[in-house]
Amino acid sequence: MSRSNDERWRSHFPMRERQGVSPSLLDRREAIAELGDALRDLVEQAAATEAPADQLRQVTANVRRATRPLTTHQRERARLPSADDLLDGVRMYNPVTGAGSGLAPPLRIDLVDGVAIGTCTLGLAFEGPPTYAHGGVSALLLDQLLGYVVSATGRAGMTIRLDTRYHAPIPLRTPLQMTGRVTAVNGRKSTAHGVITTVAQPGELLVEATGAFVAPRPDQSRRLFGAALHRSAADPAAE
């Protein structure tokens, strides 16, 4: 499924459409994504390599040299990345979907008729049991997917419970498909259910989860996230 320039950066369903993203910001997001691609490749190659010790040490030295320029421009914990946009759902470093994250598979999610459909392939860096993904990674993927579909209803919330059932191990280096949908809404609480299968065998269930999400009150959001949520005192959508 093709994505526009704006769509490709979204980690969550946008609360509202925001127009006029500057070319310089789009270029920076592209650069962040390019670095993220390189980091993911590095992590995967490092997990798969059988290179001898001397080569590993040479690569280590090269990586440390390459890292130094990044240390001169660092953000504080309470400050959002300048390339992010919470109101438009852009989280460049989300560890599951972020294009700039070296940790993310990354999971790509689309919304089709109220159903979240996710796809990704897990490399050797996600290995738990030999040749299969770590069970915690399955929960991570489903937590993100269910949070996404809940957000799409306009009731973005935080996970308060995730019940996960493992039917079969998830094979590595195999295209995966995830689907999730909201099953109940009760005030600020939403419940959603999702599953993981392979793309090749969508009828064979590997993992499923039911998640409960609660939308925080404005005062809770301010207490939990503080300055990170502040965009502009003149922007009522920030509340």
Structural summary, described in words:
With 239 residues, the chain is α+β, with helices and mostly antiparallel strands. Helices cover 28% and strands 21% of the residues. The protein has 4 helices and 6 strands, in the order ααββαββββα. The chain has helices at residues 23-48, 53-67, 135-151, 218-225, and strands at residues 108-112, 115-121, 158-166, 175-186, 189-198, 207-214. The protein has a 6-stranded antiparallel beta sheet, covered by helices on one side. The radius of gyration is 19 Å and the shape is globular. Residues 232-239 have low confidence and may be disordered.
> How many β-strand runs?
6
Please mark out the parts with pLDDT under 50 across 5 or more consecutive residues, or reply none. 232-239
Shape descriptor: globular
Bin the strand percentage: 15-25%
Q: Count helical runs.
A: 4
Largest sheet descriptor? 6 strands, antiparallel
Mean pLDDT: 89
- Could you give the order of the helices and strands? HHEEHEEEEH
Strand order of the largest sheet: 1-2-4-5-6-3
The end-to-end span amounts to 33 Å
Structural class: alpha+beta
Our Rg estimate from Cα atoms comes to 19 Å
Percent in helix: 25-40%
